[in-house]
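Students often ask why inverse folding is considered easier than folding. One informal answer: many sequences map to the same fold, so there is more than one right answer. In these notes we will look at a single instance of the problem. The structure comes first.
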């Protein structure tokens, strides 16, 4: 099981970085959107 998970990470290393950046961008947009009404 652990070997399968490790091989998945090795095979999709390039897309994992792009997915992580996308998740970070979504979180930043969420916090900006939630803070925006307090700034206006």
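Output (designed amino acids):
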């Amino acid at each position: 099981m652990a070997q399968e998970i490790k091989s998945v990470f090795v095979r999709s290393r390039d897309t994992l970085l792009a997915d992580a950046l996308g998740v970070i961008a979504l979180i930043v947009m969420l916090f900006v959107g939630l803070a925006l009404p307090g700034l206006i």
